[in-house]
Amino acid sequence: MLKEEQAAELLRRCEAMSDRRLDNLHGNLRRAETRAAAVWEMIVFEASSQLGHVEYEDPSGGPDLKLYFSEDRYAWIEIAYQNPRFEDEARRSRAVVEWVNQERQRIGFAGSIRCDFFGELNNPAGPVRTLPCLHEKMTS
C-alpha cells in the first residue's frame, strides 16, 4: 500500500493529466472500504499514460479511461479492483493454524501438526469452512 504522501502525489499527477479535479477519486480515497480501489485506479491511469495520451472518465459517466494510440486509434478501459472474496476466512484459517502451533509449543510436542481446512465438500456453491472468530480462541 502507498503512504498518504505517495497517494497524494499520484492523485496530483492524475489530475494534472486530466486538467481537472477528480472529485470521485478524492471521495473514494477518504473511505477505507474504497481506498484500495481508488489507488488501483490511479496506478492504472498513470501506467496507461506511458502508452499514449489518456483521457479520464467524463464527469457524466462512461468507461474510466480512453487511451489513444494515435489520433484515430484508441481503446476504452474500465478499471476494476477485485476485493479478495474469502479474505476473512483466510485470516481466520491462519489464526487457527497459529493457535494450534502455539499450543504445540506450549505442551512441548516435538512432532509436526498438519492443519488443512477443506470445509463442507458437498455444498453446491463450493466448500464452506466453519472457523472460529478471532476472539473465540479457546485456552486451557
Could you explain how this protein is built, in words?
With 140 residues, this protein is mainly alpha-helical. It folds into 2 domains: 4-77, no CATH class; 87-136, no CATH class. Helix content is 44%, strand content 9%. A 3-stranded antiparallel sheet has the order 1-2-3, covered by helices on one side. A hairpin with a 5-residue loop joins strand 2 and strand 3 (74-77). The longest helix has 21 residues, at 87-107. The model has no long low-confidence stretch (mean pLDDT 87).
Q: Helix amount, in percent?
A: 40-55%
What's the order of the H and E elements? HHHEEEH
Task: Give the tally of structural domains.
Answer: 2
Largest sheet: 3 strands, antiparallel
State the low-pLDDT regions, or none.
none
| Shape, principal axes of CA atoms | elongated
